[in-house]
């Protein structure tokens, strides 16, 4: 079954992303919404969303942050996270951005491996923004 990756309009994203976040991360008690981000989802042919990923553009740094993303448990292992990374990277390139950054929770080797496969490399940010044991990732788009 081929799932379609689509970029959501902001008003639709605001309705879809918090519930999709809860579906993908049922053990997390924090519903998530970032109004400053652009959002992509993977949709089943019937229209239901099963994965998501966000991108927050930084106008000051000419780059963007891959913010929260997830794949519903029943759909993991099908390459959806990598497809969502690629969709956001293509968008960033079309916007003329120079780099992407993101972070992963220590021990999340699935996401780390997907980022590595898509050309991201670990780095140490000057001002870390995540938890003390997060890993930080950078990809040059030039």
* Series of H and E elements: EHEEEHEHEE
User: How much of the residues is beta strand, in percent?
Assistant: 25-35%
- The helix count comes to 3
Give the fraction of residues assigned to helices.
Answer: 25-40%
CATH topology (fold) name:
Aminopeptidase
C-alpha Rg (nearest Å): 14 Å
Q: Can you list the strand order of the major beta sheet?
A: 1-2-3-4-5-7-6
Shape: globular
Which structural class matches the secondary elements? alpha+beta
- State the major sheet: 7 strands, mixed
Which quaternary structure do these chains form? Answer: single chain
User: What's the total count of β strands?
Assistant: 7
Domain count, please report it. 1
CATH class: Alpha Beta
- Terminal Cα separation, in Å? 34 Å
Average pLDDT metric: 92
The CATH superfamily is Gcn5-related N-acetyltransferase (GNAT)
**Name given to the CATH architecture:** 3-Layer(aba) Sandwich
Low-confidence stretches: none
Q: Can you characterise this structure?
A:
This protein has one domain: Aminopeptidase (3-Layer(aba) Sandwich). It is globular. By secondary structure, the chain is of the alpha+beta class. It is built from three helices and seven strands, in the order βαβββαβαββ.
Provide a concise account of the structure shown:
Helix content is 27%, strand content 31%.
Which structural traits does this protein have?
3 helices; 7-stranded mixed sheet; Aminopeptidase; alpha+beta; 142 residues
């Amino acid at each position: 079954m081929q799932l379609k990756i689509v970029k959501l309009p902001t008003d639709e994203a605001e309705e879809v992303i918090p519930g999709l976040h809860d579906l993908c991360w049922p053990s997390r008690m924090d519903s998530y919404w970032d109004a400053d981000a652009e959002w992509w989802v993977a949709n089943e042919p019937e229209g239901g969303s099963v994965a998501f990923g966000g991108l927050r553009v930084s106008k000051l740094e000419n780059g963007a942050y891959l913010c929260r993303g997830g794949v519903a448990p029943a759909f993991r292992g099908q390459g959806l996270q990598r497809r969502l990374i690629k969709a956001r990277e293509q968008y960033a390139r079309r916007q003329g951005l120079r780099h992407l950054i993101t972070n992963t929770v220590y021990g999340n080797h699935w996401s780390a491996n997907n980022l590595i496969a898509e050309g991201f490399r670990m780095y140490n940010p000057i001002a870390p923004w995540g938890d003390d044991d997060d890993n930080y990732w950078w990809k040059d788009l030039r």
